[in-house]
Amino acid sequence: MPHDEEQIRTLIEDWAAAVHAAELEGVLAHHSDDIVMFDVPPPFEGVRGIDAYRASWPPFFAWQRQGASFEIVSLDITAGDDVAYAHALLRCGTPRELAEQPDVRLRLTLGLRKERGGWVVAHEHHSFPDTSVGT
What we know:
This is SgcJ/EcaC family oxidoreductase. There is one protein chain. The chain is an alpha+beta fold. It has one domain: Nuclear Transport Factor 2, Chain: A. The chain contains four helices and six strands. It has helices at 2-20, 24-28, 50-64, 95-100; strands at 31-38, 47-48, 69-79, 83-93, 106-115, 118-127.
């Protein structure tokens, strides 16, 4: 499935660039209508559906205007014929946050499915490690 993995890599890299640029339509592109996202901030039960997903981004964009980074550091993809998953690590934080904890990475996991011949994100999960405990 190398061609599928290339398509998915491009989709994710374009999504991350849109997040960094606060381009909402680019963030929403290639997401299913029934997207489920588990994110760092509440709601703890997750965000369900494209409308709720859309509504979740403006607060992040407001935070990001402080000069925050949102950059893929590593990305691994596994694709089958009609489902795929990807996991990535991202530098995500304000300059102060990244200076204080330069090794902390946002963890991203995506579940994708093929719809009408193209890949869409059906599940998105973001998390940070708990840095309050020793490693």
